[in-house]
Amino acid sequence: MPDQEKEKPATTLAAEAPAAPAPPKPGPPSEDHSQQPFFGEPLVGFDPSEITGSLIVIEGMDGSGRSTQIALLQEWLESEGFAVQTSGLRRSNLVGRDIDELLAKNAVTRLTLALMYATDFFDQIEHRILPALRSGTIVLADRYIFTLIGRGVVRGINRDYMGGLYAMALRPHLTFWLNVRPETAFGREFRKAQAISYWEAGRDMSLSHDLYWSFIRYQTMIKREFEVMAKKHNFIELDGEASVSAVNKLLRQRIAEQLGIRSTKYTPSSALSHLWR
Amino acid sequence: METQDAVQKPARTEPVKSTLPQPGRPIPSRSYPGALIVVEGTDGSGKSTQLYLLKRWLEIGGYRLHFTEWNSSPLVKSATRRGKQRRLLTPTTFSLLHAADFADRCERQIMPLLQGDYLVLADRYVYTAFARDTARGCSPRWLRNLYRFAPIPDITFYFRAPLDVAVNRILSGRPKLKYYEAGMDLGMSYDRAESFRLFQARILEEYDKMVETDSFVVLDGTMPVNKLQKQMRDIVASKIDLKRFAPRAEVAE
Asked: Do B142 and A43 touch (CB under 8 A)?
């Protein structure tokens, strides 16, 4: 059975912000649950006590294998009888497509883009993720606020500012970080499209005219931000260079523990077997 | 003399609580040569008329200036319109979308122009978001953080009109209030006009709270237009070294 009471990390994102309230106390849960499900501040108009599902986040750079793992996890969880919903960046009804357009035009500045992503994020939280969690669904999130914070910070936006922006983000029950070397990620991403995109390579940051070096430098900067956040937010770090099946096994073990699933046995169906390496 | 009465506190000293704390990188408060003049107030307080007249005065004088309006960035406009039409917006996303809009104007217009030694006139500024979004239930602390990249204005005129006056000005001139404009999303009343009045009352209260903390220059929105404009021009002339923005040719003489 899903047991959302069990997992209550003591850290809060708001602890980064200068004027933040005292973080929720670790140890036995207090009577007041209102603060705990969110990083810093409660979201206007939502009662977090209604959450019965679990929010599981998979983070990692482009080419770290996130979407492959999520497809496999969804199949496994569904075979175990859990309702699953996925979420990811730029998928909101409100501004998902607007962000695509902004990215295509390159006309957007860093702060506007950061705020559009925040809008996209909270629209999904309010209209998709929270309703799903209230109905006991497992939400698998392909990236979360950590990517968004990292991207802002490497572009020179103040870390506290970014943290404060996401103070009302729901705290995940589990956060996995698929850690890969930028060089490996480059190869994987290049194979996918036979090219590297403007934003993946962080070309707006003028790091290098050489696409390869631009990609490596940019992703290395993001990776450093992840290293900082990994400690603060109890990321479960997995070696994203390992085989798909090996990574998937570790993910299943940890998730099974969280959800109280006895067996972690899984073989992908024929529809997904091509992913299994 | 009458200027003295209507104007509360010229407040030239540094604001005690720097209400828009500057973030690490962007914009320390006075690192630019330009000047920023802002008008704020509830709907129907007369602020836009007054800012228009101030702008005409400066334009006719040939000063270098730029005028910017709340909620007008072309990049974000379609998203805002869609969100409002389909009623997809919650207090949080309403606030974020307007912040994105403001950030776009701030990064692409307001800041470059202030750096480039322009006079920037803004019809509504971040205080609109503070008043409106707080009235919608957003956390004030979160909001202050959200907008802390905004440069602090040199003058913030707050046009204050009693609730009835302002609300009646709007209701008599506008046949149909829009959903979010009337604060219908707050569920205070099924009647749009009544909801609007309740919403505006909350906003007015939030504005009033900022008079001290944000060094607003309070003007009486019920005064005759031309008298009010004279006050406004006097204050601008006394607080801002307008010669700096005069046509360059004249400076050369």
From this structure: no
Residues in B touching A122 (Cβ below 8 Å): 90, 92-93, 96
Question: pLDDT (tens digit, 9 = 90+) per residue, B108-140?
Answer: 999 999 999 999 999 999 999 999 999 999 999
Domain ranges of chain A: 52-268
DSSP B151: P
For residues A195 and B98, what is the distance between their CA atoms, to the nearest angstrom?
A: 35
Q: For residues B193 and B181, is the Cβ–Cβ distance under 8 A?
A: no
Q: Which residues of A touch B90 (CB under 8 A)?
A: 44-45, 122-123, 126
Q: Which CATH superfamily is domain A52-268 in?
A: P-loop containing nucleotide triphosphate hydrolases (3.40.50.300)
**B90 contacts A45? CB cut-off 8 A:** yes
Amino acid at site B75: L
Question: Tokens 């490596």 sit at which residue?
Answer: A216
Whether B12 shows a pLDDT value over 80: the answer reads: no
State the pLDDT at residue A129.
96
Order of all β-strands in the sheet with B119-123: B65-69, B119-123, B35-41, B155-160, B217-220
> Which of A39, A158, A160 is most worth mutating to test chain B (most B CB atoms within 10 A of its CB)?
A158
Q: Which residues pair with B121 in a beta bridge?
A: B37, B67
Residues from chain B that touch A123, judged by Cβ atoms under 8 A, are 88, 90, 93
